[in-house]
Design brief:
Glutaredoxin; 6-stranded mixed sheet; 5 helices; 6 strands; isomerase activity; antioxidant activity
């Protein structure tokens, strides 16, 4: 069963390796957060990576954290994951979670998967699969609008 809505963001510790800097829970709080699970062996994931980058540019007030979730023994090789991160210009923090430590904390089973947290670190939306990005748009706008209103 996936993480329930209104759950607090779990710790992002126990990672095999971080690329583009480590994302610590305490540093993320204060701004909305999007955690994106993906895998090097997932074709849909690779197709969506340019869209994730586009979102990162469109929503600078949103913090992005990628989590590479291996789906097979072959996915455990770190260098090909790093090469993919470079190739697709994923400049936000990327966790290589070879032991599924963070994956298990999120109770995540799917790639691609997106978990949207508000600025206080509370899960507001989750979506997975081929249409995950489209399903994310309205909840994302809602969370960002709430943040803008609170800032006024």
């Amino acid at each position: 069963m996936p993480m329930r809505l209104k759950t607090e963001i779990p710790e992002l510790t126990g990672i095999a390796e971080w690329v583009n800097g480590e994302a610590k829970k305490e540093d993320l709080l204060g701004k909305p957060i999007l955690v994106h699970f993906w895998s090097i062996s997932c074709g849909i994931c690779k197709e969506s990576l340019p869209d994730v980058n586009k979102m990162r540019e469109e929503y600078p007030q949103l913090q992005f954290v990628g989590v590479h979730m291996p789906r097979s023994e072959k996915d455990l090789a770190i260098d090909p994951v790093k090469d993919t991160i470079t190739k697709y210009e994923l400049t936000h923090p990327q966790a290589i979670d070879n032991t599924h430590t963070v994956v298990d904390r999120f109770e995540n089973q799917f790639v691609p998967a997106f978990y949207l947290f508000d600025a206080s670190g509370v899960l507001r939306h989750r979506s997975a699969g081929e249409k995950a990005l489209k399903l994310l748009k309205n909840p994302l706008e809602r969370v960002l609008n709430e943040e803008e209103k609170e800032a006024e």
